[in-house]
Design brief:
There is one protein chain. This protein has a single domain, classed as TIM Barrel (Alpha-Beta Barrel). Strands 1-4-5-8-9-10-11-12 form an 8-stranded parallel barrel, surrounded by 9 helices. A two-stranded antiparallel ribbon has the order 6-7. The chain starts with 13 loop residues before the first helix and ends with a helix. With 323 residues, it is α/β, with parallel strands linked by helices. It is built from 11 helices and 12 strands.
């Protein structure tokens, strides 16, 4: 048989495959999520997320430093409060765990990019992402509270703030509050497209953030909707977002690709706790090769169009990749 083109010619050796590879994942693409816990000397492994720990600020700095040495340039901080209340008041406290961690990180690792999650779910006694009024989340009242949280993070030294609450108008509210306080150079990495996903379960154990009643489907997106994702992202662009994020990543590769084709801003994607835990659990059973599956999943996210990948595998993957 006379074949004009044989695709296997360029797959023959690893050198050839590497030369024509279309997508490359680098350590510089990663953002490493970390959980800041109150106190000192705290290192609590999250049962549902093997290898992930709640860390007090001084130990969190050491963990971030080890990631930075592997060329991971940024961390995303989630905080656990000393106590919760109906309004999540500790989220904006200058003495809060995230604020303490940010100050220590910027003091000890000034070259590290520090991103902070801006939400109330881990701080409220009811576990919802906003303030309640009549048993429902009050969108506009929540915006002011979120703005206060973002400003407190910026005052502590955060380089970027990342609102994950999915309230309407929150990017504009944060941008206005930051600019009014002189933080016009603090960027906003918006959870522009955050779906009401079943893949968040292990995270809610890590952050102790499960809602005490109901669910979050009135503010997080319906997994059935794709066109709505573009509308959500467009609103955040208009309000001043600097980076757009899709969450989760793996089950929503089509959405990542859609946003990458539609917008000129950098696109981030969050490989969430459930994605991480599934791979860890399957590998522990010997059902798949953890390293190969981890790298393939990250490659798929990058190939779909993500410029940045938030992943709990950041250190493991970076140790295997060349930047």
């Amino acid at each position: 048989m006379d074949l004009v083109y044989r695709p296997r010619r360029l797959r023959r050796t690893e050198t050839l495959r590497r030369m024509v590879r279309e997508t490359v994942v680098r350590p510089q693409d990663f953002i490493y999520p970390l959980f800041a816990a109150p106190g000192k000397g705290v290192r609590q492994e999250v049962a549902a997320m093997p290898g992930v720990f709640r860390l007090s600020p001084e130990l969190l700095v050491k963990e971030a430093e080890s990631a930075l040495k592997l060329r991971v340039p940024a961390v995303l901080l989630f905080g656990l409060p000393r106590q919760k209340d109906d309004t999540g008041s500790e989220a904006a406290s200058p003495k809060g765990t995230v604020q303490q961690a940010v100050r220590l990180l910027k003091k000890n690792l000034p070259e590290l990019m520090v991103i902070t999650d801006v939400c109330l779910c881990a701080y409220t006694s009811h576990g919802h992402c906003g303030l309640l009024h009549g048993g429902r989340v009050d969108n506009d009242a929540t915006l002011e509270a979120l703005a206060q949280v973002a400003v407190s993070h910026a005052e502590a030294g955060a380089d970027l703030v990342a609102p994950s609450d999915m309230m309407d108008g929150r990017v504009g509210a944060l941008r206005e509050a930051l600019d009014e306080r002189g933080f016009e150079m603090v960027a906003i990495l918006s959870y522009a497209v955050k779906y009401a996903s079943a893949f968040y379960g292990p995270f809610r154990e890590a952050a102790d953030s499960a809602p005490a009643f109901g669910d979050r489907r009135s503010y997080q997106m319906d997994p059935a909707n794709a066109r709505e994702a573009v509308r959500e992202a467009a609103l955040d662009v208009e309000e001043g977002a600097d980076i757009l994020m899709v969450k989760p990543a793996g089950p929503y590769l089509d959405i990542i690709a859609q946003l990458a084709g539609e917008f000129d801003l950098p696109i981030a994607a969050y490989q969430v706790s459930g994605e991480y835990s599934m791979l860890k659990a399957a590998a522990a059973q010997g059902w798949l090769d953890e390293t190969a599956a981890m790298l393939e999943s990250l490659l798929a996210i990058k190939r779909a169009g993500a410029d940045l990948i938030l992943t709990y595998f950041a250190k493991e993957a970076a140790a295997l990749l060349k930047g």
